[in-house]
Amino acid sequence: MEIQNNGKFSIEQLTDQYLGSPRRTQVRKATDGQAANGLSFQDVLQLKTLAGAGSLKFSKHAMGRLADRNIELSDSQLERLESGTRKAEQKGIRDSLVIVDSLAFIVNVPNQTVVTAMDSTETKENIFTNINGAVIM
């Protein structure tokens, strides 16, 4: 049975595709308080907590922009985006423009959320609104 999604994707699908966090498609029965991969619930919880600490989230709008423009962030670019966000936070910036290579991101620093993403074709005019600071990485 084939299901058509009319070109619409869930946030999870796009997150998996662009941020490289593959999801398991097979379900195995867990035994003795351990997950199917052999980790206990406590281990999984600690890993998720550590992974979530300091990592950026991408809004639905930003994910759509990345998908529409076929922008794929490398690990290095994502690392520099996170570093730029940390620097903005240290300076007290709330809504920051973070430029990484030829890509521009508007980041809501307190929420650690990328609000939108632009490539070089959109940044030609060099006009950015609703920001109170910029970080060039």
Automatic annotation (TrEMBL):
Record-linked Pfam families: Flagellar_put
Source superkingdom: Bacteria
Protein name, as recorded: Flagellar operon protein
Lineage per the UniProt record: Bacteria, Bacillati, Bacillota, Clostridia, Lachnospirales
